[in-house]
Design goal:
182 residues, alpha+beta, 2 domains, 3-stranded antiparallel sheet, elongated
C-alpha cells in the first residue's frame, strides 16, 4: 500500500514522469504476455524491469523537484514568513534503532509537534541559527503541497549524489533486464 501512496504523490507532483513509467510497465507487461504465449518464461525479467521502471520514475520525479528548488528549472516559488516555533524532537528512530534528534521549524501558530505542512525539518546548524521572528523563505513546487526549504535537507548535495547513484543503478539494471529470457 505504501508504494501506491508514493506513486500517487509522484503522479500528482510530476504526471509526465509517472505516466511515462506506467506506460513502459504496460508495454513490458504486454511483451511478457506475448512471450509467455509462445512458451517463454519471462517472469524474472519482467519483475526486474518493472522494479527498475518504478525506481526510475520515482528518482526522476524527485530529481526534477530538487532542480526546481535550486532554481535550475522553473516551477518553484518562495513565500517569506517569520519563524513562530522551534522544536528539538528527541525520539526513537525505527530506522537507525536509536534515539535521535530531529529539528523542526514552523512559521504558523499551529502545534509544531503535530505532523503537517505547517512545519519543516531542518539541519541542526540551520535550527541553531534561526531565532523566533527571524525571516524564513518557504518554497513550494507546482502541484506539490509540501513545503521545502531551499538549500535544505531535501535538495542537499548528498541527496543529489544518492539519487544519481539510484538513477544509474536503475539504468544499468534496466539494460540487464532486456537480456535473453530462459
Amino acid at each position: 500500500m505504501y508504494i501506491v501512496q508514493i506513486l500517487a504523490s509522484s503522479f500528482v507532483a510530476h504526471p509526465q514522469f509517472t505516466a511515462g513509467g506506467l506506460a513502459l510497465i504496460a508495454i513490458a507487461s504486454y511483451w511478457a504476455y506475448r512471450r509467455a504465449q509462445k512458451g517463454v518464461r519471462v517472469t524474472k525479467y519482467l519483475v526486474g524491469f518493472i522494479i527498475c521502471i518504478l525506481f526510475l520514475v520515482l528518482t526522476t520525479s524527485k530529481l526534477y523537484t530538487m532542480y526546481q528548488l535550486r532554481g535550475q528549472i522553473s516551477g518553484a516559488f518562495t513565500l517569506n514568513y517569520k519563524v513562530r516555533q522551534k522544536w528539538d524532537e528527541y525520539a526513537w528512530d525505527r530506522t537507525s534503532r536509536r534515539m535521535q534528534h530531529t529539528y523542526w521549524v514552523s512559521w504558523t501558530d499551529q502545534d509544531i509537534q503535530q505532523p503537517g505542512s505547517h512545519r519543516i525539518n531542518v539541519t541542526y546548524d540551520k535550527w541553531s541559527r534561526l531565532k523566533i521572528d527571524d525571516p524564513i523563505g518557504i518554497t513550494y513546487v507546482a502541484r506539490d503541497p509540501e513545503p521545502y526549504l531551499r538549500n535544505g535537507i531535501f535538495d542537499s548535495d548528498d541527496n543529489f549524489i544518492f539519487d544519481y547513484v539510484l538513477l544509474l543503478g536503475g539504468v544499468i539494471r534496466g539494460s540487464m533486464a532486456g537480456g535473453k529470457a530462459d
